[in-house]
Amino acid sequence: MRHERVCLELVGTVRGRLGEPSDDLADPVSLAGWLARRGLRPTEEPDAAHVTGFRALREASYRLLVAVTGGGAPRPDDVALVNRRAAHPAPAVSLVDTPGGGLRREVAVPTPEQALAVVARDLVDLVGGPDLVRLHQCEADVCGTFFVDTSRAGSRRWCSSATCGNRARVAAHRGRAAQP
């Protein structure tokens, strides 16, 4: 599932978190693929330590998001981990000439640590920014992922209407049909 925030995409790499979870970041190859699909293909192939680093940030992010959306206080060690990762230098950006005479923004290829910093900074921007009021956890029984509700009414219930929403509607229909 694609989110508009890379930090939420990282949290979403545990599918079915509240049921029978599966981890999309099982090894360095799956991490490399995940990074590439987000435009963060690193300068070097990720190794097991990078997988551990991304998983640690993912779990700290999840707990932090549960706390801030539930009105609780985040764990200090989770905040410290996010801040530590966000403090790493980001990939360099520059303006380059285009064939038509204009300029475009170009981002340098990141190291795995810089890619981790990009994700952590996105979380800092989300939690410390105006989108926090529209941040919700999916209401599907087993999902557990988060999304920013960009609907006009602000009443979205699921991370994806096509997957989690459809499952919930089908289950509700079956429940009604089973009643005498």
UniProtKB/TrEMBL annotation:
Q: Which InterPro entries match?
A: ABATE (IPR010852), ABATE_dom_sf (IPR023286), Znf_CGNR (IPR021005)
For this entry, the protein name equals Putative RNA-binding Zn ribbon-like protein
UniProt xrefs under PANTHER family: BLL6575 PROTEIN
The organism is: Umezawaea tangerina
Question: What positions does the domain Zinc finger CGNR occupy?
Answer: 134-176
